[in-house]
Amino acid sequence: MQPKRFDQARPFLTLGILIAGWLVVPVAVKSFVRASFFEFQAPLAVAASHVRDLQDYWGLRLHSNDELIQAGRDLGRLTASYEDKVQENGALQDEIGRLEGLLRLPSYADFRLEHARVVQRDFSGWWQQLVIRKGKNFGIPVGAPVIFAGGVVGRVKEVRAYTAVVELISDPSVRLAAKVEGDDHPISYQGGNNPTFGPPEGVIEFVPLNIYASSTIPKTLLTSGLGGVFPPNLVIGQITSVEPGTDGLFKTGEVRLDPRLSSLTEVTVLVPINPE
User: What does the alpha-carbon distance between residue 204 and residue 191 come to, in Å, rounded to a whole number?
Assistant: First the structure.
């Protein structure tokens, strides 16, 4: 009878020994094993990403000529619109440079735009992150801000040889200085406790008492530029509610983030030209 019980308990005994052994392993060895496992796994994720791109390509080849012609016309109109915006942006940059020269103001830190394909998404209850298809091979640094057409995506958390992990702004560990559009008072933003399949949200603190917002009349939350990570005036999300805090001096509120964060396929990393 006892040998049978021992055989039933053997898997749990083995698991307990492995866990105990892992706990006494030095931190340096754990870091090396984790990095090695990530680098071993990364080519598989990158290869799967290339396969998805190939599937999308052949899927487009199956469209009819009329659909392709219509798509080409739409793309032509969009390209013309972007060309106008590029010219307008160039004129505005020249005007900013002229005003900075007249007022002797320092220029904003310049960034190199590095576009990257999303390889993998991880939206668990513990963290919210993406893996992109560029890393040390493209000079991506840890802590670099990541953006997309709708505003802030997050910041680079880890950099490997050919991939990088991006921590989304919906992650509870992300905190940054923000401001309400039309108001220069700095407030604190933090990622919320987002469920796996729920919409991304965040929370704000130290909101001035004169700020009001609701789901019907939301306010836009922007980066303040403080902290030296994110440039100013990037869109974070929409403030959908604010209420007085426990101290009575400030308000707290909720922020609805862009729902496209959970379905991004392409992002842009802002790589500082002068990191110092």
Answer: 9
